[in-house]
Structures are given as C-alpha cells and as structure tokens.
Amino acid sequence: MTLNQVKSLYQEQLKPLYPENEIHSILQIVCEDLLNWSRSDFMIKDREELSHIQEEILQKSLRELRTSKPVQYITGKAHFYGHEFTVNEHTLIPRQETEELVDMIIKDHKAESYLNILDIGTGTGCIGLSIKAAKPDSIVTLMDVSNDALVIAQSNANHLKTPVKTILQDVLALDELSEKYDVIVSNPPYVRNLEKKEIHDNVLENEPHLALFVEDDNALIFYRKIMELSKNALQPNGILYFEINQYLPDEMKALATELGFESEIFKDLNGNYRMMKCVRN
Predict the structure, then answer these.
(1) Per-residue pLDDT tens for 179-236?
(2) Which of 14, 75, 84, 104 is 20 to 30 Å from 231 at the Cα level?
C-alpha cells in the first residue's frame, strides 16, 4: 500500500466525522508523530510503498480515529507554542487559541526576566510551562484538582527541562493562596451544559468533562473564586489572566468590576472573545 492509497482510505472512512482538510491534517500528524516522518516526507512519499509495520500503524490509527478518538490521544502528543506535550485522557488537548493567551502574557512581561507565576487548572501544564520556557528565571507553580493531570504536567516539565512546583488542590476549596504572585493565569472549565451541542463528538466522548463543563446557572464559578483569591495574592502590579467563554464577555466584565478589578477582554484570531486581563483597582 502507498501513502496515496492510505490518504484515500482515510478520506473515505473519516468523511462522516471530519472535513476533508482536517482529515489530511490528522493523517499528517499520525505520520509525523508515529512514523517519525518530517513534514516534507509526508509531501514527497505519496507513491512509495509503505513497510508492513508502517501500514499496520496507519491502519490501527484509522480504526481508533473511526471511534471519534482525537488524534492527539492516539499519538500521545500535542504541539503547543513550539513545544511537544504529552497528553492523555486525563488532560485536555491544548488548543491554538490558548497559545494566544500565552503569547499575550510573554509579551506583556517582555521587560521582566523574573516572575512568580501561578497556573490554576494546569492540565498538561502547557500554559505555565510555555511561559517558563520563555522566561527560565521565573518561578512557576502548576495547580490542578486531578493528580493524574499533575503527573502528566510534571512529565512535560521534565521533558522540557523546565523545573516547576506542583500543587494538588481543588481551587474551589481554597480559602486563600499562600504566596504572592506577579501573574496568575487560568483556563478553567467554562463550557455550559447548554453549549454541549456545539462540541464535536470527539471532544464530548474523550476529553475530561471535569476540565470542560460548568453548570448553566453557575457558569462563572471558577472565575469568581479565582478573582476572590487573587485580590490578596497578586503583587501590587500583578496581573490576572483568563481564557474565557466567548459568549460571556459582558458577564465576565461585570464580575471583575464587582470584585474590584479593572479588566480588558480580547478577541482571538477567529474573532471570538477569548482572553481577559485583570488588575486590581
């Protein structure tokens, strides 16, 4: 079997689940991450015969993909902000829009070599570790309610050679934070149950709901708690950053005002309200 034949097979069998261009991208990820091909290999090997082992790997991946399993959970890898992160079913898959949040934080603090940073609900650690990689003199603490997620985050820290502290903690159960931070950042659960119909099946059926969803009638529960904790945990010029629900920018602004923060909300590259920056009044 040639790569061209595999491309046709993937298109035929995954067509009910994904658009054509996404299927192409998925197969490229499989080839790069599981066959150790370069991007140029994927472009020029169309007519080459695959080895038996290569064919087996691609067929096995296709069987898993047909169950709506995300390709990142099949390869065990996700690429984020120029780094490779281990992922599994205990962690959300890092998203492109979250890279924009990381980029904002790094650019906002480009003049500072040292920062004390807290990443709440860290998952893979992609936010905190990407900032640590860009600012190696900083101290970064990763917090999550899931020990399984923290194991993955620590593994990613070891792989990236970015030493960090980790805290196993449900932020909703905290009365206060024990340190003062220059940056507190969080991408907490924010998808309301009423929005589940907009979520792709491969997310609904595979990614941890604990890290995704909140109740419709208390959608800002994590933001409220983190803002309350941050009032006494930010340094005088400290900044609180969030990734937010695109449908709730006005509610987020109102919450920040209520709790004594000046805030600004930014759109992502897709034109959706996605990032929020808060400073104390």
Answers:
(1) 999 999 999 999 999 999 899 888 999 999 989 999 999 999 999 999 999 999 999 9
(2) 104
Residue 163, annotated ligand binder?
no
As assigned by CATH, the class of the 78-280 domain is alpha beta
Q: Establish whether 19 is an annotated binding residue.
A: no
Q: What is the pTM of this model?
A: 0.94
Q: What is the pLDDT of residue 201?
A: 87
Predicted confidence (pLDDT) at residue 281 exceeds the cutoff of 90: no
Tens of pLDDT, residues 139-163: 999 999 999 999 999 999 999 999 9
Separation CA 172–CA 190 (nearest Å): 14
Is 187 flagged in the annotation as binding? yes
Annotated binding-site residue? 122: yes
Query: For the chain, what percent of residues have pLDDT higher than 90?
Result: 96
